[in-house]
Design a protein that fits this description.
The protein is mostly helical. 67% of the residues lie in helices and 0% in strands. The longest helix is centred in the middle third of the chain and has 26 residues, at 20-45.
């Protein structure tokens, strides 16, 4: 991730450990996505729960980088709204 926005110059990491809050958002997004995948695979296949959980977990792996990126963007947006300086 770059240190600053190339367009406006915004410093992304305001302090050391700034994105720790984004980890909580990322966890929440991951739980929702894996849950949606789980119920979609379960509805389509009617496999045993162990297989459905394995397949939905593996299907989530390519989505993990997107989850990280959006969780950081959501965290920065929330932080800038609460404390703009």
């Amino acid at each position: 991730m770059p240190e600053r926005c190339p367009v406006c110059g915004l410093v992304y990491e305001r302090e050391h450990g700034y994105f720790v809050g984004a980890m909580a958002i990322s966890y929440g997004l991951a739980v929702v996505l894996v849950g949606l995948l789980f119920f979609a695979v379960l509805a389509i296949t009617r496999w045993p729960l162990e297989w459905v959980l394995l397949v939905s977990g593996l299907a989530f792996l390519p989505l993990a980088p997107l989850c990280l990126r959006y969780s950081r963007a959501l965290w920065m947006n929330l932080d800038r709204r609460i404390d703009p300086y």
